[in-house]
Amino acid sequence: MKKVFAKKYATAYDYLYQDKDYEKECDFLEALFEKHSKKVHTILDLGCGTGRHAIILAKRGYKVTGVDRSAEMLNIARRRVRRSSLKVDLYKCSIQEIYLNKTFDAVISMFAVMSYQTNNDDLASACKIAKKHLKPEGIFIFDAWNGLTVLTDPPIQKVKEVNNGDERIIRITKPEIDILSHTVDTTFRVLTIKDGKLISETEETHKMRFFFPQEIKYFLEVAGFSKVSFCPFLQPERPLTEKDWNMTVIAK
Hints:
By secondary structure, the protein is of the alpha/beta class. The protein is built from 7 helices and 11 strands. It has helices spanning 7-16, 22-36, 52-59, 71-84, 120-132, 147-152, 213-222, and strands at residues 42-46, 63-68, 88-92, 104-109, 134-146, 158-164, 167-178, 183-194, 197-211, 228-232, 246-251.
């Protein structure tokens, strides 16, 4: 499979998600910290992308370290950190390669990063890495695609259009589900148009895995976590159901 989050897609990424409410998502994280953990001061962000969550959390007083495998996404994150004058440590590596020789009060992995762990070895390794980098009473929080919903309400082709000044960015999303492997090959075709002319085009296929609650619970328990709970994304007080496409997993 070709590289994902390469330069052209990474450049368009924040424009495509300009309507994403990162502040609200950080409110959600803080609600989970308060509900499930002792006071959180230090955070490891696995798959930090362009640094949106990390910077908001740093502004709120947390000491944040971010890790991502995409050099292009990290370059954007580093520029954002410099503009903010905040301190956020950023490292380029895959989740399976991380060894920071320190532990954190919380490990987070937002926006379905764990769904990119498409085989069992990578998933098991990611869970173990999170556990290794947590303090004894630390908390691991991530969101992922809920298999219960993916099978009953499968993903469909979508078109999204956003503006970037005098440019139009159009993303065409085509999913192809593989039920037996619990994966979806999602092809993103991104077009940038200016003055009625196509000035940039790129295409990436992202293989993503959907998970079932008991499956996730098993991998986390094998990694050493003893308490695992679930809720719908952005709804910390409601139990997860088969109608919730995005599930949040809380492990201690």
